[in-house]
Amino acid sequence: MPQPEVRRSIKRSAVSDQQRRRELALLRQTQQRSDSQNRARRLASSVFTLSSSSSSDLILPDKGILTRAADSEEHEAHLDESVAPARELNVVQASKLKGREARQWFARQLMLPEWMIDIPPKLDRDWYVFARPAGNRCFVVSSNGTTISRLRNGSVLHHFPSSLPNGSRTRDSSGPASSYCVLDCIFHEPDQTYYVIDMVCWRDYSLYDCTAEFRFFWLNSKLAESGACNSPSTYHRYRFSVVPIYDCNQAGLHAAYSTSMPYTKDGLLFFNKHAHYQTGNTPLALVWKDNFCSQYFLDTDSQGLVPTQQQVVLEMQEDGKLTTSDDPPVEFGSLEVDFIQKSEFRAGNLLRFAIKDESVRVVDGKLEIGDLQFISKSNRARAFADSYSKVFFQYAARHSPLKIEDIAASILPNLPDDSPIVDVEMGS
Amino acid sequence: MAMEITQILLAAQSADGQIRTVAEENLKQFQQQNLPLFIHSLSTELSSEHKPPESRRLAGLILKNSLDAKDAARREELTQSWVSMDPSIKSQVKESLLLTLASLVSEARHTSCQVIAKVASIEIPRREWQELIVKLLNNMTQPDSPAPLKQATLEALGYVCEEISPQDLEQEQVNAVLTAVVQGMNQMEHSSEVRLAAVKALYNALDFAQANFENETERNFIMKVVCETAMAKEPEIRQASLECLVSIASTYYGYLEPYMQTLFNLTSNAVRGDQEPIALQAIEFWSSICDEEIQIQEESEEEDTGSSPHSNFINQALPVLVPLMLETLLKQEEDQDQEDGVWNLSMAGGTCLGLIARTVGDTIVPLVMPFVESNITKDDWRCREAATFAFGSILEGPSVKKLAPLVHSGLEFLLNAMKDHSSHVKDTTAWTLGRIFEFLHSASSEYSVLTAANLPRIIAVLLESIRDAPNVAEKVCGAIYFLAQGYEGGDSSSSLLTPYLGDIVTALLSTADRADTSNPRLRSSAYETLNELVRCSNLRETSSMVAQLLLEIMNRLSKTLELQIVSSDDREKQSDLQALLCGVLQVIIQKLSNSDETSSIINQYADQMMILFLQVFACRSSTVHEEAMLALGALAYATGPQFAKYMQEFYKYLEMGLQNFEEYQVCSISVGVVGDICRALDDKILPYCDGIVSQLLKNLSDPVLHRSVKPPIFSCFGDIALAIGEHFEKYIPYVIPMLQGAADHCSELSPDDDDMQEYGNQLRRGIFEAYSGILQGFKSSKAALMVPHANRLLKFIEAVVSDKFRDEEVTKAAVAVLGDLADALGPNTKVLLKDHTFHVELLGECIQSDNDQLKETAVWTQGMIQRVLVS
């Protein structure tokens, strides 16, 4: 006969701390699971308002089956605001995202300059020029007492305290606790400095819809005030710095190109003064390089060597077409069905190809590639295919590069203001 | 045809180890080669009166073990081999067993009873061996049945009732069994052995007696006989009868009214005058009545209707019951504080008094206070201890308003009593202080007994007394535990306790190091109190102290790795200490990761901690240290992506944890840690997913794994899917059928069983979370893969929604997965959502809910569905 269970004495605590630890761990996990899933959901609900139409294809590639973003935008208007939850996902909300969702979101937030394959008109009047520091482009967000920098593919580079608005947990930080800022930077390894090349938000003030002229003015006046340009300290792990930005006249171009900078240069960046900050590829910001001002004039392969044949990274579409990252995408060829099936590539995969020089032609200023030779799948860290302008620039770089003299020539001081500039045809 | 196995059975009990091993090996081979013959031979041996009692006893034991095992899978296997055995062998075996009941050798009879019950447990639920009950009852009614046969028969009836459940017997059979048993208790006719066997059989048969208790005549008869045997001259019979009364108190509470006066007289006589084991059962009777009434009160507070009737037995008996219990408090044992879990009259009485206080609330206070006041200053330590114990026992139940003034005026007295000459008094005083802090101290309550004025004095007394004898120190740790707890969640700007934390931590650390006791309880109390201190501390004021503590604990943990391990006892001690230290680390990690500012401290020491955890894991070869696993999960979440660098080293231990079916808690925790790692690493977990997912699938298919681990495994699939997104595609062919199978299983669970209901809810939630993770993970690129499964998922959601037993968490998960479906699959779900309109009502209901999270989820889901419906 079993003895009835002995009753627990009132003097023995009924609390088992081990059981409590288990339960609290479980509670924490449940909460965090729910947070993760909610993040996935909130992102979902805000996809169409936070990104330009170009990114919708990245999010919903399967057009036959899934809602197009364009459709959703229309329908959104029908939804009662009181029923539908807030769909706006601003940078602060996005900075609470984690992992893959965060990477996907942030990968789409940078303005990506096209490569300069011809010289825009009125360079001296409408454009800025500056020497691009060598390093990784980053999207830096300070909010909620911390600062996070993310690379072009959206992955986190650093998570650190800084003197940017609300970028660390210092008690004396001025401004409201909810304040935040967003900067477009290049992290320069040798001196561990973030060079700020654009300012997107500052103390809650959005600069997306401001001209570059205004943004640079704001950047130059505000960044230093915050103390972000000071030397590193406990609550400010990395130094921030502005780069000298010049009007793209003869003197400015010369200064950007020839003057020695506190950082290693990697080409020149040209920004149209009137352009707003636009996410994704834009022709209103341009990058140009040559061997003098960049170690990375010609693209290198995974070993860091310049391959004998030019290589390109293209995105495979549903139907096997190989396209650039532009919007709309530019097609450079397609894969055969057999090859796709054998290789198990899927739509959206980024693939690396070599180009036979003799198969490339420029027709009416457009680049056409006759023969793509498959090399491999691209590095997983990569978020986007090459842009058309990059492929073109790299092709030109190997054959008849656009030289600094050409650019300088287009901005001769005596050039009448409104005379059209003759496009410099590459490879012609 | 039975084999002659007497010599082997005797050899298997030989003092010579070698002979024994050979014999055991022989028996094992025999069993494997020819199970029917083996079983037949054993039963023949057991029933042969001319064989030695030793071989008969072992034969019976092996027979029993051939029918039953602790392990569920093994038991099922044994059941199947019996069921499929040749019927003629089975009936010979059963015949032999029944024959043995008449043996003159008591050991053979006893063993046979046990085996009969095991066979019955297999056959009676299958509606086989229906003649068993009749045959047993015949033994009772045959006029010439010898007493030993009757005794064995009653014993067998009791064991059979213990093994089967009420629905396995027809009411007629139950009636016959009860009649035989109750008649067996009749003292006129039977020897004391028969009567004792009858009372013990009744104890097991009580669950079958529902219909008989509903019938007044039969109930009266049963109660009359039980009350008579409770006053029998044989103490064993009195004790067994009181055990029956305790069981009746909880099973048939609603029928006791007419007997309460008798039962009070009977039990109070036993408490006052009978031997201790019997007096303890008498107290237990009243504790059980309290349990019932507390449960009825809780039920009626939870829901307005449907609670069982309340007979207020405790309230009615209060004026006589309370003095009865107070008397027992004076019957302490000299060394009662030195032993773990000591159970004597004083402990049982104090425990019952505590339950009475919880049952009746304020009305107990005036009945106890005079006892407290008159005894607390007496010279005899027993009086002082009993007074304090009485006071401490009634602190839960009465209102804070009623107790607070008493505590206020008595607090200084209690603090002084921590210097009493008697260690017993100090022990109980420290415990009482702990109870005061537990029930009457909360930073947010208006009646809190702790104030800025008395806190310094309290802390000073506690820190002095923690150096007292180990048992006193342990109670002081408990008091500090609740002291800290009361300050949790108070005014967030500052905690009154903060200025004292440094001294308290130091005191607790040196208490954990005390060498003047071999009892491990003090050490674990000290560390666990440290945990509570960390949990409840105000992080803004204490982050640097917690960081210092982190270093100290890491240092202590690293020292455990240098301990000399010679014996398994050493290993166990090392492991226990590591468990405590890993527990503290877990709590610290979790605390510090609550804020960005302090989480950098964890990152700073993450490498060192991880190395320590890996070393702790390496201390054991076959099992994984549960506490280290828990701590590691917290660390993974706190460190985020940088945890990736530890994965290669850690993975083997994770796998070991996932494979640990025996300690299902470890398995369950390991599953939870997979979730933590998913959230920390995102798709960096990909290289490990094949191994993890295949192990999880293996676990789900394994019948041995404790069922409580299964719902977390489903949730874990969701975690993995969310982390690796489209890469989850290759697991879909395996995971989806598992989810669908489990969904089907949910509808098969019995709704009558509370445990099953609870399990069903957990399972449903796990399944929904899995689908949610997969849908959200696939949303951006692979959503089409889920289109074929959408209809079935929607049907499952509908089925769950229509289940009235679903709890709110299940509802929330159902609503969320509905939104995920619409979100991920978009217009593909349009037709489905138009066909299944249950969501309209469900969401309407949830949007009205008071639960903000549920409401928010429902609003979101409604938005997602509307988006699809207008597309």
UniProtKB/TrEMBL annotation, chain A:
Pfam families noted in UniProt: SPN1_m3Gcap_bd
Signal peptide per UniProt: none
UniProt entry keywords in alphabetical sequence: Cytoplasm, Nucleus, RNA-binding, Transport
MF term (GO), any: RNA binding
Residue ranges of domain Snurportin-1 m3G cap-binding in the record: 109-285
Cytoplasm among keywords: yes
Location of the protein in the cell: Cytoplasm; Nucleus
Main location: cytoplasm
Keyword Oxidoreductase: no
GO aspect biological process, one term: snRNA import into nucleus
Region (Disordered) residue spans: 1-21
GO cellular component, one term: cytoplasm
Purpose: Functions as an U snRNP-specific nuclear import adapter. Involved in the trimethylguanosine (m3G)-cap-dependent nuclear import of U snRNPs. Binds specifically to the terminal m3G-cap U snRNAs.
Alphabetized PANTHER family for the sequence: SNURPORTIN-1 (PTHR13403:SF6), SNURPORTIN1 RNUT1 PROTEIN RNA, U TRANSPORTER 1 (PTHR13403)
Protein name in the entry: Snurportin-1
Organism: Zingiber officinale (Ginger)
Automatic annotation (TrEMBL), chain B:
Keyword Cytoplasm in record: yes
Presence of keyword S-adenosyl-L-methionine: no
Gene Ontology biological process terms, A to Z: protein import into nucleus
PROSITE patterns: IMPORTIN_B_NT (PS50166)
GO MF terms held by the record: small GTPase binding
Recorded family membership: Belongs to the importin beta family. Importin beta-1 subfamily.
Pfam families: HEAT_EZ, IBN_N, TPR_IMB1, TPR_IPO5
Recorded GO CC terms: cytoplasm
Major localisation: cytoplasm
Domain Importin N-terminal, first and last residues per copy: 23-103
Top-level taxon in the UniProt lineage: Eukaryota
Protein name: Importin N-terminal domain-containing protein
Locations listed in the record: Cytoplasm; Nucleus
Keywords for the protein's UniProt record, in alphabetical order: Cytoplasm, Nucleus, Protein transport, Repeat, Transport
